[in-house]
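Example record

One chain of 178 residues, shown exactly as stored in the release files.
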Amino acid sequence: MTESISSNGSKHHSSKGLAEGSWKGMKKYLEKDMLCEILRGRVSYDFTWYPAFGRSSAVFTVLLDGQPAKKFGAAYAWKMLTQQGFEIQYVDAVGYVPLLTREEYTDWEFSDALQVYRSQTIDSSIASDNPIIRMFAILDRRVGKRRLEHLKDEVELQPGWLRTLYAARLQAEGIVTG
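Predicted structure tokens for this chain:
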């Protein structure tokens, strides 16, 4: 158990919340420190907190060219998964549906994946079973053209939402076209 700052800015002792620090610090890390040069200005991250609706009301959004590429939020994930036929009685139960069987994820899964991503090698992240960790890795500045050449055949193996980000990176680097 570690001290962290949750998505609403309060400190607590838990593995939930932001990976480390404030949202402002995480945004800087994601958009400036970690993001590959060629996608800077095209990929951004947004965070919305709805304190009146309780702890299940945070949403992280990954934007590509100003448009949402993926949203991560417990209430959002619950709604989408129940519409897809998953039997989920309450929002916190979303986490019991294995990551590999779905394409909707919670805000705490985003935060947990970011924490894991930050603590392991880029090789481990790019090969991770967790698609959220792979998302961070494909956007990472440490992934060069040679590695991207090898990853271009894996685009179709990714969840639909992640294919969009893989394609954006590969196209921006000139590895694949249109």
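Notes: The helical segments are 23-33, 74-83, 107-119, 122-126, 131-138, 145-151, 160-172.
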